[in-house]
Amino acid sequence: xxxxxxxxxxxxxxxxxxxxxxxxxxxxxxxxxxxxxxxxxxxxxxxxxxxxxxxxxxxxxxxxxxxxxxxxxxxxxxxxxxxxxxxxxxxxxxxxxxxxxxxxxxxxxxxxxxxxxxxxxxxxxxxxxxxxxxxxxxxxxxxxxxxxxxxxxxxxxxxxxxxxxxxxxxxxxxxxxxxxxxxxxxxxxxxxxxxxxxxxxxxxxxxxxxxxxxxxxxxxxxxxxxxxxxxxxxxxxxxxxxxxxxxxxxxxxxxxxxxxxxxxxxxxxxxxxxxxxxxxxxxxxxxxxxxxxxxxxxxxxxxxxxxxxxxxxxxx
Length: 316
Description:
Elements: E1 2-8, E2 11-18, E3 21-24, H1 25-35, H2 41-48, H3 53-75, H4 79-82, E4 86-88, E5 93-94, E6 104-108, H5 112-117, E7 127-131, E8 136-138, E9 142-144, E10 152-153, E11 156-162, E12 178-185, E13 188-189, H6 190-194, H7 200-203, E14 209-217, E15 228-233, E16 236-242, H8 250-260, E17 268-270, E18 292-297, E19 301-308
Parallel strand pairs: 6-17, 8-14, 9-19
Antiparallel strand pairs: 1-2, 1-5, 1-14, 2-3, 3-4, 6-7, 10-13, 11-12, 11-17, 12-14, 15-16, 15-18, 18-19
Helix pairs in contact: 1-2, 1-3
């Protein structure tokens, strides 16, 4: 199942991709309950299948099963009946799948070729750092070119979205805590990243964490460690790898990070970028204003963003 968050009439909603349209999950549940004779469909639907992604993730398996039932119900409706709960993609504003994550935890130096191109030693434990909430933006959103630097770089990554609260999670149980997967671009201002030992300032510029286009539920991807991942800058292929090449695998990362902090539904773990980043090229291959950067991951889709000419031009 492919889940999205979207804006309709200025309200944030949870959606499910359905036959090229966006199914409003909560409205679909209400419609199903009406057909079943439920006297208070809205109240019950709000409990069974909430209208927001965060509440949906907190509901876990119960909400996921309700979403499946909603899709099956919608498939049986006439076109007229579907029209009340389905929206064309261009009729809504698609948001980041998880618009308000509690934590965005990134993993550095987690592909052999990236470690080599950066002339670093292989890590013996995961290198983790955070991006802040202001970085999150969606497929199609513009990313402002910073006024203070020209070293604006890309990093294609597979992101894991947590679906269950956990602390000290055993590695063998870690995948039970995964809600799904999405694409992530860990956009980085390189000179700001490296001017102090801590990377935070170079990693947390506004809109520097594009995420999307959808959250693909864990049951829909048989093996997240066998996904091709690519990045194009304009029409030039810059990064190409497979998630099988991760140094630290997803179960280990989840277990390791949960030793540091409690993981909560909606938390995002970006698993690292492969080789091919702009800073490692000669001459340097940084993004420029007007460029379009695209991340593509098998079974997840394309995450594309344009680099705006200046911060004040975003949205114009």
